[in-house]
Write a structure and sequence with these properties.
Blueprint lengths: L9 H13 L1 H52 L6 H11 L9 E5 L13 E9 L13 E20 L8 E3 L4 E4 L3 E4 L7 E3 L4 E4 L2 E3 L3 E3 L4 E4 L27 E6 L2 E4 L2 E9 L4 E4 L2 E12 L4 E4 L8 E6 L10 E3 L4 E5 L11 E5 L8 E4 L5 E16 L11 E10 L3 E2 L14 E7 L2
Parallel strand pairs: 3-6, 3-24, 4-7, 4-24, 5-8, 5-25, 6-9, 7-10, 8-11, 12-14, 13-15, 14-16, 15-17, 16-18, 16-19, 17-20, 18-21, 19-22, 20-23, 21-23, 22-23, 23-24
Antiparallel strand pairs: 1-2, 2-3, 3-26
Helix pairs in contact: 2-3
Length: 438
């Protein structure tokens, strides 16, 4: 068997090394070999930075969605669910809510121009990024995003139906034209026809707001300045905290008026009836109708002697006995009714023109059907009743009429304005939305 032998001529090796030392080609090759890892790393980081950009955009989307969701909870009046809602929406958009990732939800915000703003929600998300080529140059990389969403008033309602489930909680029927230009119609009903425009009815409003939806039938028309908002949250009852003080005695009992009289504030047991051609002047103050009705006949007149800017009257329908005896209001067509609510902020009934005791048996109807001869400035509040309304104030330009009832039915041509409600002392029915502000 043969043997292999390798011989080395060390003189040849020395000559070769010397040649390489003098050669430019050898220098370039060596330099390239040393630079190659750096070139690959830089090229890799260029690709990797594109991935980081996409992740930054994704993180911002998650943060915006979380802030909006938290702000929507705040708009509904809830503080306790803001954080849960924000976290849920971030996860729904792909955020992994586990270490080392973090999500901070602050209501109010802890930084920025909205610091301390109770109607704003701040969300900050940080996410650790895995490193590929960049690990040769960086120890770690964290992507973060911040967003602030705030509750903002987007409009106001002048009609609110409180019933949580009724079909036609707000109804425009017959050949009625209800002109509510500048304000919205709202219904807390979850019905698919919570707001219903029937027959040849016409509704002109700034917008609609309802927990459910709305319907149009027949040849009805609906004109809005803004798109309707459906499947929304309930609006708060603005008068839920108003309470009737203890009353006693009777200023008059079963009062029927057929001539010209001036009445003073007090307790009117058994009700007040204004017969045809009666002429009643009410002095400023609160009138408690105890266990009786308020009836205003056609061709009668009832007005307020309200000469000072803060003067006004409030008619309270209540009972010191059984709640079933709480009466109703009936103002017939052709009656001349000119009344305004008190505007003094110190008055417990400020802005309230008619107030129905919430203890009243549900299902009654209060009728305000004065047509063009009825001028009511203030709020009509009947949380257990249906209010039938016909008040065409297009000529009188009443600056504020607000209707809050269990249900509301427009049965004749009506014009309602709410532009002057703050000056009239009426609690605003604000409609809110949410918006990214930072």
């Amino acid at each position: 068997m043969g043997r292999w032998r390798i011989g080395i001529d060390w003189h040849d090796v020395a000559r070769t090394l010397a040649a390489l030392r003098r050669s430019r080609k050898g220098s370039i090759i060596t330099t390239f070999a040393l630079a190659l890892p750096v070139l690959i790393g830089v090229s890799g980081m260029a690709v990797e930075s594109g991935v980081w950009y996409v992740e930054k955009r994704t993180t911002q989307t998650q943060t915006d969605a979380a802030a909006l969701s938290g702000a929507f909870e705040r708009a509904k009046g809830s503080r306790s669910t803001v954080t849960t809602a924000a976290q849920h929406e971030a996860v729904r958009n792909g955020f992994v809510n586990a270490a080392p990732n973090t999500i901070a939800v602050n209501n109010p915000p802890l930084s920025g121009p909205n610091t301390g703003e109770g109607e704003a929600v701040e969300v900050v998300i940080t996410q650790a990024q895995p490193l590929l080529f960049a690990k040769f140059f960086l120890n770690s990389l964290t992507i973060s995003a911040r967003s602030v969403a705030a509750v903002q008033v987007t409009g106001s309602a002048c009609v609110l139906a409180l019933d949580p489930s009724a079909s036609g909680a707000v109804t425009v029927q017959g050949s009625t034209t209800a002109d509510l230009a500048g304000c919205s119609v709202a219904a807390n009903s979850s019905s698919s026809s919570a707001i219903n425009i029937m027959g040849n009815g016409a509704l002109n409003a700034d917008s609609l707001w309802t927990v459910g939806n709305y319907t149009k039938g027949g040849s009805s028309t609906l004109t809005m300045a803004k798109p309707p908002v459906v499947n929304a949250w309930e609006l708060d009852d603005p008068y839920a905290d108003v309470h009737i003080p203890t009353i006693s005695g009777c200023t008059a009992t079963n009062l029927s008026v057929s001539s010209t009289v001036t009445l003073s504030p007090g307790v009117y047991c058994g009700g007040i009836s204004a017969t045809s051609h009666a002429n009643i002047t009410l002095q400023p103050g609160t009138y408690y109708i105890n266990a009786g009705d308020l009836q205003v006949a056609s061709n009668s007149t009832i007005k307020c002697n309200c000469t000072n800017p803060t003067d006004g009257v409030t008619i309270v329908m209540t009972s010191t006995g059984d709640a079933s005896t709480i009466g109703t209001v009936t103002s017939n067509g052709g009656a001349n009714v000119t009344l305004q609510a008190p505007t003094d902020a110190g008055n417990p009934f400020a802005g309230l023109l008619f107030y129905k005791d919430p203890r009243a048996t549900p299902g009654a109807t209060d009728k305000f059907n004065g047509g063009s001869k009825m001028e009511l400035t203030g709020a009509l509040y009947a949380p257990t009743d249906t209010i039938d309304f016909t008040g065409d104030n297009s000529m009188a330009k009443v600056v504020c009429t607000q209707i809050v009832a269990n249900q509301v039915v427009f049965i004749g041509n009506s014009t309602i304005y709410d532009t002057g409600c703050p000056a009239a002392g009426v609690q605003p029915l604000q409609i809110t939305g949410v918006k990214i502000v930072e």
